[in-house]
Structure formats: C-alpha cells, structure tokens
Amino acid sequence: MPRRDVIEVRDLWYKYPEAKEWVLKGINLTIKEGDLIAIMGENGAGKTTLVKHFNGILKPDKGYVKVCGLDTREHTVAELAKYVGLVFQNPDHQIFASTVLEETMFALKNFGWDPERAKRRAKEVLKEMGLLDYINTSPFSLSGGEKKRLTIASVLVYDPEILVLDEPTVGQDYGQKRRLAEIIERINSLGKTVIVVTHDIEFVAEYIEHVIVMSRGTIIAEGEATKVLCDDNIMKRARLLPPQLGMVVKNLEDYIDFKGNFLRLPVFVENLRRWLENDENVKGI
Does the residue 1 lie in any domain? Predict the structure, then answer.
C-alpha cells in the first residue's frame, strides 16, 4: 500500500524580516508517512528555518508547505501542532511551567484531556525519558540534558503524527543517546514520521538510514546514509566530517565489498568477519 505524503515543500523561499539574504532558496522536498530522516548541514545552512515551516511558526515568502494536506499559510500554529510536534534546539525556549509534571501535561490540558488521564499519560512518558523522579521539580533546575529530554517528553505526550527533533543529542551522554534512539525507533515503528535535525554525524550513522544534507539554504544531497555521508564532495560542501566507520570503509574498499548499512557497527563487523574468514584475503594483505 503506497504511503501518503505528510510534508510537501514546493519552491520554498524565505528570508527573515529586514534581512538581505535568502535563508531558504527554492527548497523542494517530499516526506512520506513513516519516514525516519536526518537533516544535516553546517551552521547557517537553513535546517532549523526549514523545519519551523513544518508547523507554521514561519510562513513561506514564496512557494508553499503542506502538512498532512494542510497549506501552512492558511492554518495557525495551534492547528498544525496537532499534526507536528517540534522540539526546539534550545530547551529554555520551550519550558515555562513550575514543575516537570505540569510542563509535560500542558499540551494535553489544551487538547481537553481529563486531568487524571493527562497525569497518567504524562507520568508514562516521563518514565520513558528517565525523568519520573523529577515530577515535582522545577524544570529550570534541571541539567541541560534533562531539560532537553523534558521538552521531548512534552511533545511525545500527545502523540503527534510527525515528530521533529532539533539537535536532540546535545548534552546527552552515550547511554541517553542510545535510549533516545530506541524511543525514536519505537515511534517510527508505529508508522509515525520522525525528522531529526542534528550535527551529530555518528548518531545519524548508527541509527538513521536516510539523510538530507543542506548548505547555504539549499538541499545539496538526499539519500541513503551510506552513500551521502561517505561522499567526500558532499561532506566538504556541507562542512561536515564523515562518520568514523565511513572513513575506515574508504581505506578498505579496495579489499572488501561492504554490504548493507555498514555505518552500523554490527553490520561493519559482520562484513569484516566474512572477509577475514577467507584465507586468501588475509594472505593478500
């Protein structure tokens, strides 16, 4: 069964008021239901500006953006928020309640949930994000990483069809990143669309297989992570360093024909194991 388009961007141009330069220049993009995508690029590439168009915070100067069939120029942020949950890069721009529990329940109350039902749902999500012990704590007293997880919880709680995470791994240690990846994969497995804006190329290499790369307000590449992130020309244009396993594969590509998503360590190891089992290969080193 064909998957429907949930985000459609056509010839999108945008510049901030009083700015001379265009931040987005003729962006064309289609994102389908159930996609898991990373948007990458250098600072100033236009990544955050682009995703702010997905829930109507910004409106196109030229072209259009449609979300679940709704033209964002004709709908409010509140209307679009039912479909798109956007977690900002800076959690301090999103936090305002007096306790962690109240922060997480806020959207549900706005959507008319019964208070007790909202509380139960909020606690479920806070437990998943490792924040249940902080329900009566002020959000402003949390660490940077904890604030980030709280803002993710405050969006996950109402189960939007599309989840957009702007730099979600900032301030997270390895264990927290792994937990975040598991949550993203679980949400995606339910048919939800997940878009991750990030500079964390190792996180993308390990967990996300489809990549969009931006530079200077345009999309310069889109495709499988193993192809896009290992392309030296694309990485140079985007001012990004390729993932470490990608660089290792480059050095071994004359010897090994890597299969599958070799940017994931288990897949890389399996390719290497198969090659080493062949005595002729080992002798030829």
Answer: no
For the stretch 32-91, pLDDT in tens is: 999 999 999 998 899 999 999 999 999 999 999 999 999 999 999 989 988 999 998 888
Tell me whether residue 278 is in a domain.
Answer: yes
> Structural domain of residue 270, as residue ranges?
243-285
Residue 242's contacts (CB-CB under 8 Å, 6 or more residues apart) are 201, 229, 230, 232, 235, 250
275 burial type by CB count under 10 A (0-12 exposed, 13-18 middle, 19+ buried): middle
* Burial degree of 133 (CB within 10 A; 0-12, 13-18, 19+): exposed
Q: How many CB atoms lie within 10 A of CB 244?
A: 13
Closest CA to 69 of 50, 83, 53: 83
Enter the tokens of residue 218: 């345009």
94 in a structural domain: no
The verdict on residue 120 lying in a domain is no
How many independent structural domains does the chain possess?
Answer: 1
**C-alpha distances in Å from residue 79, one per residue of 55, 75, 185, 219:** 9, 6, 26, 28
Pull the structure tokens for residue 13: 């141009």
The residue written with tokens 């499988």 in the block is: 224
